[in-house]
């Protein structure tokens, strides 16, 4: 059985192109999804100029399953994220760290003929995730990458309920970080250019907010144990390093091709650690979905039709810094 999939691709010129992908039926361990919702992530902007299907925050309805699939049935809701596959037998895979598998399949490097900006998707069942009933599909799609990426650092790297978590930037990742950290019991300290979002971030769970525009010094009530950087540009480290507690950890989350530059001596004197991190491993992503469902964590979204015109409009808002805070594209049939 041939499966025809309508897809939205990037191009060398950065124009969105409507095209078709063909699959020669399902393998025994695969699932066919009808995509209903797709999140728009900042990483999609990186690949907009590539000849590949866009999108990696997908949610849909199971339409068919391979004969060996036992975890999904027709009619189930399922989501998929940044990682599509791994070898399954290396040390990283066997220890639940398959995101670091040497043979990992990521968005932008493998399966370039598929993505969430499409009518359907075919993926291994092992890399699909059941969506809890308490989470709407339009809220679930941004959780598949943006939400999971933030939850991953809080869960994996020992952030405790008695810690003070600093968050630079209130946007697509930042507004997730505020909610997850607050629900974990942390004191959440937000750094934004102005205090214009004060009421909003307090509503999300922040305990303090500091305006940074034009400042040469920040005076906090107490130092910060973990600093999450969600802005696209690197911050003024001389402004933030004095706010950190000894042994604090910095998490740079944004995607950039620039070099990472930071004053050297303060890292040594304070025992400061810089922790790299990518998307969540599967067991962490599942915990994130359960946590979000229980605590009613959801993104602030703007919706667009899952069409060429809708995706172009969403990109325009994202690239213009006008997205509040995650774009979600809705299937039109």
Concise summary:
The chain has 333 residues and is α/β, with parallel strands linked by helices.
Task: Please write out the topology.
Layout: E1 3-9, E2 17-23, E3 30-40, H1 42-46, E4 57-65, E5 77-80, E6 83-85, H2 91-94, E7 105-106, E8 120-124, E9 129-130, H3 137-156, E10 164-168, H4 174-183, E11 187-192, H5 198-204, E12 208-211, E13 224-229, H6 237-240, E14 244-252, H7 265-270, E15 273-274, H8 282-295, E16 301-305, H9 308-319, E17 326-330
Parallel strand pairs: 10-11, 10-13, 11-12, 13-14, 14-15, 16-17
Antiparallel strand pairs: 1-2, 3-4, 3-8, 3-17, 4-5, 5-9, 6-7
Structure explained in plain terms:
With 333 residues, this protein is α/β, with parallel strands linked by helices. The protein is 25% helix and 28% strand. It contains nine helices and 17 strands. It has helices at 42-46, 91-94, 137-156, 174-183, 198-204, 237-240, 265-270, 282-295, 308-319; strands at 3-9, 17-23, 30-40, 57-65, 77-80, 83-85, 105-106, 120-124, 129-130, 164-168, 187-192, 208-211, 224-229, 244-252, 273-274, 301-305, 326-330. Strands 3, 4, 5, 8, 9, 16 and 17 form a seven-stranded mixed β-sheet that branches. Strands 12-11-10-13-14-15 form a six-stranded parallel β-sheet. Strand 16, helix 9 (308-319) and strand 17 (326-330) form a beta-alpha-beta unit. It is globular, with a radius of gyration of 20 Å. The protein starts with a strand and ends with a strand.
């Amino acid at each position: 059985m041939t499966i025809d999939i309508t897809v939205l691709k990037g191009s060398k010129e950065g124009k969105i192109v409507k095209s078709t992908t063909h699959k020669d039926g399902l393998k025994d361990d695969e699932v066919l999804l009808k995509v209903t919702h797709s999140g728009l992530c900042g990483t999609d902007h990186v690949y907009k100029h590539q000849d590949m299907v866009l999108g990696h925050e997908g949610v849909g309805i199971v339409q068919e399953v391979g004969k060996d699939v036992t975890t999904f049935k027709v009619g189930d809701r399922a989501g998929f994220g940044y990682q599509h596959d791994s070898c399954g037998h290396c040390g990283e895979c066997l220890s639940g760290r398959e995101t670091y598998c040497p043979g990992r399949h990521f968005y932008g490097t493998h399966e370039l003929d598929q993505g969430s900006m499409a009518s359907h998707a075919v993926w291994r069942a092992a890399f699909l995730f059941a969506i809890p009933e308490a989470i709407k599909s339009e809220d679930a799609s941004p959780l598949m990458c943006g939400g999971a990426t933030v939850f991953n650092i809080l869960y994996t790297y020992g952030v405790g309920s008695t810690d003070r978590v600093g968050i630079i930037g209130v946007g697509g990742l930042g507004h997730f970080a505020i909610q997850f950290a607050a629900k974990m019991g942390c004191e959440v300290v937000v750094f934004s250019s102005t205090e214009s979002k004060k009421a909003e971030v307090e509503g999300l769970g922040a305990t303090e907010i500091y305006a940074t525009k034009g400042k040469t010094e920040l005076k906090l009530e107490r130092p910060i144990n973990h600093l999450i950087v969600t802005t696209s540009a690197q911050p003024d480290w001389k402004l933030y390093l004095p706010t950190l507690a000894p042994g604090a950890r910095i998490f740079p989350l944004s995607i950039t091709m620039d070099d990472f530059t930071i004053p050297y001596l303060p890292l040594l004197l304070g025992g400061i650690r810089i922790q790299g991190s990518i998307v969540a491993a599967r067991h962490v992503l599942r915990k994130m979905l359960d946590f979000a469902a229980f605590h009613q964590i959801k993104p602030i979204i703007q919706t667009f039709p899952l069409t060429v015109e809708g995706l172009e409009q969403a990109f325009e808002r994202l690239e213009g810094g006008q997205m509040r805070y995650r774009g979600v594209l809705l299937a039109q049939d």
